[in-house]
Amino acid sequence: MATKRGTKRKDKSRVVLKKGESQRKDGTYDYRWTSKNGKRHSIYAQTLEELRIKEEVVVRDEMDGIRAEARCTTLNELFEVWAQVKRGLKDNTYQNYLYVYRQFVEPDFGQSRISSIKKTDIKRFYNMLADQRGLKISTIESVHTVLHQVLTTAVEDNYLRSNPSDNVLRELKKEKEKEFETVKRKALTIPEQNIFLNYLKKTPKYQHWYPIFAVMMGTGLRVGEATGLRWCDIDLQERTISVNHTLVNYDHRETEGRKGCYFNCHSPKTEAGKRMVPMIETVREAFLLEREYQKEAELKCTVSVDGYTDFIFINRFGECQHQGTLNKALRRIIRDCNDEIIEKEGMDAVLLPGFSCHILRHTFTTRMCEAGVNVKVMQEVLGHKDISTTMNIYADVTKELETTEFENLDRHFTAWMKDADENGDVEQVS
């Protein structure tokens, strides 16, 4: 609508419009402005009242230096920016960040516009991950780590005033203490440990699995450290194991055009991870058994990973062992072992609990505690950067041992008192 100079513009209801405001033919309203960088922007609303509320936000953002494009930038778009500029991470850590985000954030929540994300939105998102998808708190913490960094980038680049994910996970843990309660990893008992290893030894179907599981249980090596061992890393004469790298598997990811499953070798995350681990006799025998098995089967390592080759633990194709394959094998072994025990001894017999490869590391740690190994030595053998990690495990195991010892003491006292009473050695006090 053309107007004379000095005449105020009005909408169809004769309400005076401000600079930048206009009413469309369909009765809706828009507000147009030019940001400091020279770019033109516009917002829309059904009513003039609604439009002016939005205008106030625009003005406040302009004064605070918030980018106008934040209104249309999605979380996924900013994640790509973060992924491009992120530095200072081990490649396996970086790849894990990418996987976690693309698996849990990108499909749904990642489509949210940056400017619209509120603290309550993130709370709902984490609740959904816990309640509907059944994720453990450790996984949600990984999601939070990535999401918090991306939103920090949004603050640094003036997309947001503050990070809406600040302290959200802490609050959720407090609110949902029971839901987020984590179950502590339980080590195998000595009877369970013996059942497991003896079953592997005597069962032809599973004998080829004995060496790697015996090594893991007798060294406390992490899965990637064990599967990454090369023959040159062990000294059977000096009985030492040099841990100097980790074998990492990337599953169903895409990096620089590489898709599917592939391996990489990485140096330990910390200097503490590089270490010499003593080789107990059980472990030495396991290495010798593995060498003999490969000789009889005419197996040789056929792969090279980042210049590393001659891996000790390989599959029937001469390729590196996959962590997922090891855990699947464990499930089959546990199932068949328990079936055999029940058939021979009945349901009252000691059975193997369900456990993963990492429990073997925890079992080794527990055996060290039971043997009275010095905590500092334990820290060095396990490759813990912070001794508090070792101390926490030590405290848990020691507490369990104290409980068991006092239960034994209680039984002994009861027996002693019973014998004394039967022999008439206990004075009756009136």
Question: What would you note in describing this structure?
Answer:
There is one protein chain. This protein has helices at residues 48-64, 75-85, 91-104, 119-131, 137-156, 168-175, 190-202, 210-219, 223-227, 281-297, 323-345, 357-370, 375-382, 387-422, and strands at residues 21-23, 29-34, 40-45, 234-235, 240-243, 246-250, 262-266, 275-278. A hairpin with a 5-residue loop joins strand 2 (29-34) and strand 3 (40-45). Residues 179-183 have low confidence and may be disordered. It has a 3-stranded antiparallel beta sheet with strand order 1-2-3, covered by helices on one side. It is mainly alpha-helical.
Question: Main traits of this protein?
Answer:
3 domains; 8 strands; 3-stranded antiparallel β-sheet; 430 residues; single chain; mainly alpha; hpI Integrase, Chain A; elongated; DNA polymerase, domain 1; 14 helices
Offer a concise description of the structure.
By secondary structure, this protein is mainly alpha-helical.
Write the layout of secondary structure elements.
Elements: E1 21-23, E2 29-34, E3 40-45, H1 48-64, H2 75-85, H3 91-104, H4 119-131, H5 137-156, H6 168-175, H7 190-202, H8 210-219, H9 223-227, E4 234-235, E5 240-243, E6 246-250, E7 262-266, E8 275-278, H10 281-297, H11 323-345, H12 357-370, H13 375-382, H14 387-422
Antiparallel strand pairs: 1-2, 2-3, 4-5, 5-8, 6-7
